[in-house]
Amino acid sequence: MSEALHLPAVRRIARILDGMREPTAPLRTMLSADAPEPPLVPPAIDISLVDAAAITERVASGRLRRVRPRVYLPASDEGDVGYVEELMAEVRGVFERASGPFWFSHATAALLHGAWLYDVPQLVHLTHEFHPHVARAGEPMVRRHHTALRVRDRTSVRGIPATSIERTLVDCIRTLLPASALVVCDSLFRLGADPWTVSRLMTESKGKRGVIQARRILELCDPRSGSPGESAARMAAVDDGLPRPECQIEVATSEGKFFVDFGWEDVRVAVEFDGAVKYSGGAFDDPDQVRRLEAARQRALEAVGWIVVRVRWEELADPLALGLRIRLAYEDARYRRRAAGARSGALVLA
Fold first, then answer.
1. What is the per-residue pLDDT for 81?
2. In the chain, which residues fall in CATH 3.40.960?
């Protein structure tokens, strides 16, 4: 009997995670670094004893926010409500008014578990054990799913019912757009998703919609990814025909050892993702100093023969152009290595 098609990818992910957990592993801190607390679902205000006219006045003045009939939240202290805050408010509204067993699922569960999200529609997903009544006009942000959800695939996050981290991962890599799926996959494995439980769920999903994509996402997954931008940039590179890159490659230079975000060691091409937060000051130090250190790091990498491609957030909006830019750097590096090999008479396989 042939093994499941996803098993080689799962074994590779398990090996990466085992390596990250080694007590002396330099990447051990990545399992907890850059992992902010999952967003809080705001508590609803108890209005059982509040006069109806007072509620109306507070809503009109902006001090209260109505998210469902008889479900009110405090108004945001920062004025405009952001993407995550809007979703968490909707989660609270659905939680307070829904009936029957249900679990928040898909990208909503990923967010509740603390995963990164990238380019994901602002929707709240629920999974029911029965065929739910769907009222899109009254709930434009809600998407309801029906499936027989096993007990092992259910959990609770701070009192909010949700699918387990592994079930959430499989649901997301089957249904999200590829770059979005890879971001969630990288993130949830870093947050503790068990590769072998994911493998079992993939086997049980055989024949379902999105399983072919899910296998591809597992092939590309790397829990060592340092940010959602890095994950999305990797997808752009692979979509342009490049082989799967390695994340966090250690490079020895005259200035010390550096880990590059991802790249190809055989041709010495590194891709460094410049997230805006890196240059925002505060906990990330003076922006000018950060830029000086980044420039010195790049010079050190280039001095030992690496080509460094720097990627900015705004470039992710055009993945075709980004993938082409990375591929041209990769091909340039291969040409240089072949030319150098020809001059020296050495055999260069890259």
1. 67
2. 233-344
Task: Write the pLDDT tens digit of every residue in 266-310.
Answer: 999 999 999 754 533 444 456 777 788 888 899 999 999 999 999
CATH class, 233-344 region: alpha beta
Return the structure tokens found at 31. 């399992």
> Tens digit of pLDDT for each residue in 238-270?
999 999 999 999 999 999 999 999 999 999 999
Q: How far is the C-alpha of 182 from the C-alpha of 185, rounded, in Å?
A: 5
Cβ–Cβ under 8 Å, residues 288 and 278: no
At 213, which helix (H) or strand (E)? helix 211-220
Got the DSSP string for 46-103? --TTS-HHHHHHHHHHTSEEEEETTEEEEPPTTSS--HHHHHHHHHHHHHHH--SSEE
pLDDT single digits (tens) 143-190: 999 988 999 999 999 999 999 999 999 999 999 999 999 999 999 999
- By 3-state DSSP, what share of the chain in percent is helix, strand and coil, each rounded to 5? 45, 15, 35
DSSP-derived 3-state class of residue 302: helix
CA–centroid distance for 128 within its chain: 25
CA distance 201 to 147: 14
Strand partners, 307: 269
- Reported in sequence order, the residue ranges of the chain that DSSP labels E, i.e. its strands, are 64-68, 71-74, 102-104, 124-128, 142-146, 154-157, 160-163, 246-253, 256-264, 269-274, 307-312
* Torsion region of 338: left, alpha or beta (phi above 0 gives left; psi -120 to 50 gives alpha): alpha
